[in-house]
Amino acid sequence: MNFIDAITLEVADTAAAERFYTTAFGLDTQLRLRASQEPTTGFRGYTLSLTVSQPANADALIEAAVAAGATVIKPAAKSMWGYGGTVQAPDGAIWKIATSAKKNTGPATREIDDIVLLLGVADVAASKKFYVEHGLTVGKSFGRVYVEFESGSSPVKLALYRRKALAKDAGVAPEGTGSHRIAVSGPAAPFTDPDGFVWETSALASQS
């Protein structure tokens, strides 16, 4: 079974990015950083989601991110599915912090339940087939709209969403060109998916 071992974000300033992610979200082993000056414009085609147990936790993480230098894209608010908001990190990555709960059940914490990498793809069915052929196991599937893969013991889940729908959910325009500025590491051999997202072996990623 293939799975995500870690995410590598390509950033202009690794020291600054490390400070941000440690201060804002407390992320360390789940996230790697690599210096890059690859050009990118507009939506990079993905979002990273932090799911939490209650609205107060979402607010706490968003407030910590803004204090550390993030920009609010969509202010936290209730919706049909729960509660959450979207911010953009100083390095340009878009993060959604959300919960399916609509009421608080305890004091606010910054505890994160799950990290989800959502890839905005041109054809969900074709990308689903590609990833199954590369060793991932489907956990949830809603036709050509959304697919979520089994993560096993991985700290990061992978899901596929239509690019325009993902951009709308994030609160940005879907247009974008250049590098995705992200790489995924896992136990399988390296590959590049139909939408240009690069997967590296865990050993290669750790040596970067």
Compact description:
InterPro entries: Glyas_Bleomycin-R_OHBP_Dase (IPR029068). By secondary structure, the protein is an alpha/beta fold.
What does this 3D model show about the protein?
InterPro entries: Glyas_Bleomycin-R_OHBP_Dase. This is Glyoxalase. It comes from Amycolatopsis orientalis (Nocardia orientalis). The protein is α/β, with parallel strands linked by helices. The chain has one domain: 2,3-Dihydroxybiphenyl 1,2-Dioxygenase, domain 1 (Roll), CATH 3.10.180. Helix content is 23%, strand content 38%. An 8-stranded mixed sheet has the order 5-6-7-4-8-11-10-9. The two termini are 24 Å apart.
List strands and helices in order, with pairings.
Blueprint (H helix, E strand, L loop, with lengths): L5 E6 L2 H11 L6 E5 L4 E3 L3 E6 L3 H13 L3 E8 L4 E6 L5 E6 L14 E8 L2 H10 L4 E5 L3 E4 L6 E7 H8 L5 E3 L3 E5 L4 E2 L5 E4 H5 L2
Parallel strand pairs: 1-2, 4-7, 8-11, 13-15
Antiparallel strand pairs: 1-13, 3-12, 4-8, 5-6, 6-7, 9-10, 10-11, 14-15
Helix pairs in contact: 1-2
Organism: Amycolatopsis orientalis
Protein name: Glyoxalase
